[in-house]
Specification:
313 residues, alpha/beta, Rossmann fold, seven-stranded parallel beta sheet, two-stranded parallel sheet, 10 helices, isomerase
Length: 313
């Protein structure tokens, strides 16, 4: 050190988010981080989607969850933050965890300081309508829920000896602009068989994509944590109630938009979904991450989506 001259502090490490699976949530998060000056990289499933992401300013790679390896994902080792939004595949499991050794090597020799795996509240299974928090017994019933829970444990085990913060977000049903009850009604789309099966449920956890982004940002301030958070809103209202409210919003503002109701009739006989009644608590999300939901109920969330239609027209 030269006497009388104070050395310059080391330049802060550039923030670089890598998103495995830049779909609805991944793209929403990526666009907003790019606007905040982050470097953002990620994967998608086709050359067409790759071009779309590159037009946003992302460094995108096509990644086949079954056949690809990590050799072509060049920017992963430079990432400081990693968001995993690729679901498990039936018969295969989490495709990234199947690349365990390569993944561990890249992450342990890189710049990673934060990791978040997007899971689902379905891992709790059927709780008879009880209020469940993150300490409640996990009891997945469906094959997809079992694979999700296995992936949760796999990601936490993978980073167990790494000096970084790791989070599991158990998400409710995700909705937002372009993906909501309003959009289903406006497009006169019939409900899928799975959606029809949910119509009879008394409780349905959900979360607006903007509040998922809030949770992502808030978790970045927790250092070297290993935490699970339920990311849901305050109102586990049944789907039928949500669609009724969505219809009333559209009919008030766009009375000629809906020609007829989407088919919400009975499902094919013999096809049944395992019951999964529960009310999911978001108390930890609010208390430990300090998240103040932008859309604490579906009413606020749907109203904001409808307002965005008017702004775009």
């Amino acid at each position: 050190m030269i006497p009388g001259i104070t050395p310059k502090p080391a330049a802060p490490q550039p923030r670089h988010m890598f998103v495995f699976g830049a779909g609805f949530v991944g793209r929403y998060v990526s666009e907003r981080l790019l606007a905040q000056g982050w470097q953002v990289s990620g994967t998608c499933t086709s050359p067409a989607k790759k071009r779309e992401l590159e037009m946003l300013g992302m460094n995108a790679s096509v990644f086949d969850a079954i056949e690809s390896n990590l050799e072509n994902v060049h920017s992963l080792q430079q990432a400081t933050h990693l968001l995993i939004s690729i679901p498990p595949i039936p018969g295969i499991g989490d495709p990234l965890l199947n690349l365990n050794e390569d993944l561990r090597r890249i992450l342990s020799h890189g710049n990673l300081e934060w990791l978040c795996y997007l899971s689902t509240t379905s891992v709790y299974g059927d709780c008879g309508g009880a209020l469940v928090d993150e300490d409640h017994m996990v009891n997945p019933k469906s094959e997809s829920a079992k694979l999700r829970y296995k992936a949760e444990k796999g990601w936490l085990n993978l980073v167990d000896d790494l000096n970084l913060s790791a989070f599991i977000f158990r998400l409710g049903g995700i909705y937002g602009p372009g993906r909501s009850a309003l959009d289903t009604l406006a497009k006169s789309k019939s409900l899928s068989q799975r959606q029809k099966l949910r119509e009879s449920k008394q409780y349905t956890a959900r979360i607006h994509v903007a509040d998922i982004y809030q949770a992502v940002l808030a978790s970045m301030s927790m250092r070297c944590a290993r935490k699970i958070f339920n990311v849901v809103d305050d109102d586990p209202a049944p789907r039928a109630e949500v669609f009724a409210f969505a219809r009333s919003l559209i009919e008030m503002r766009y009375p000629d938009l809906i020609a007829e109701s989407p088919d919400v009739g009975s499902t094919e006989s013999g096809f049944q979904e395992l019951p999964a009644e529960k009310r999911v608590s978001n108390a930890r999300l609010k208390k430990e991450l300090g998240v103040k939901l932008l859309h604490p109920t579906y009413r606020s969330g749907l109203q904001s989506i409808l307002d965005s239609w008017q702004a775009e027209s």
